[in-house]
Design brief:
β1, α3 and β2 form a beta-alpha-beta unit. The longest helix is centred in the last third of the chain and has 19 residues. This protein is α/β, with parallel strands linked by helices. Strands 3-2-1-6-4-7-5 form a seven-stranded parallel beta sheet. The chain has eight helices and seven strands; from the N terminus they run ααβαβααβαβββαβα. The model has no long low-confidence stretch (mean pLDDT about 95). Helix content is about 40%, strand content about 20%. It has one domain: 3-Layer(aba) Sandwich (Alpha/beta knot). Keywords: Methyltransferase, Transferase. InterPro entries: Alpha/beta_knot_MTases, rRNA_MeTrfase_TrmH, SpoU_MeTrfase, tRNA_m1G_MTases_N. One of its GO terms (molecular function) is methyltransferase activity. This is RNA methyltransferase.
């Protein structure tokens, strides 16, 4: 078995990527402190073709070398916007028809493995601060709270890892619905 080269992978150009239909998903980063985490989320959004990333509150924005260190150019391919207030954005997205899913440990949360995205429905996944998680007012305003099942001693995952887990889960379920 031979490892594939960059040429073998035959990836789209940034312009081709921007013109492709995306999965019905936006990512909302709620006061994420680490610029490396922000960059990693950009790379995940590129890999799985998310519509957009919203960078809220204190979340850092491109251009920044610490974001680029992990994004590896995904800040050019993924559409993004900075929004000062996460709750205001959540309410706006709801009026636009998005189902808001906070990724958090909360009472009456839905375990990710039990989550079944509705065909054709657009979703916004909210991921929170590395220490405090998603703000309570945002959790309260969410349509669904998704919890990633965990079986070890730690109580949470790094935000960039959590993003990869929930976006891949969403994409794989969406693709299986399409047959």
């Amino acid at each position: 078995m031979r490892k594939l080269s960059m040429d073998d992978l035959n990836r789209d150009s940034v312009e081709e990527f921007k013109n492709k239909k995306k999965i019905p998903l936006v990512l909302v980063l709620d006061n994420v402190r680490s610029l490396n985490n922000v960059g990693s989320v950009f790379r995940t959004a590129d890999a799985f073709m998310a519509e957009k990333i919203y960078l809220c509150g204190i979340t850092g924005t491109p251009p920044h070398r610490d974001i680029e260190k992990t994004a590896l150019g995904a800040t050019d391919s993924v559409t993004w916007e900075h929004v000062p207030d996460t709750l205001e954005l959540v309410k706006k997205l709801q009026t636009e028809g998005y189902k808001i899913c906070s990724v958090e440990q909360a009472e009456n949360s839905t375990m990710l493995n039990d989550f079944a995205p509705a065909p054709g429905q657009h979703y916004a996944f909210v991921l929170g601060n590395e220490v405090f998680g998603v703000e309570q007012e945002v959790v309260s305003a969410s349509d669904i709270v998704l919890e990633i099942p965990q079986f070890g001693t730690k109580h949470s995952l790094n935000i960039s890892v959590a993003t990869g887990v929930v976006v891949w889960d969403f994409l794989s379920k969406t693709l299986s619905q399409q047959g």
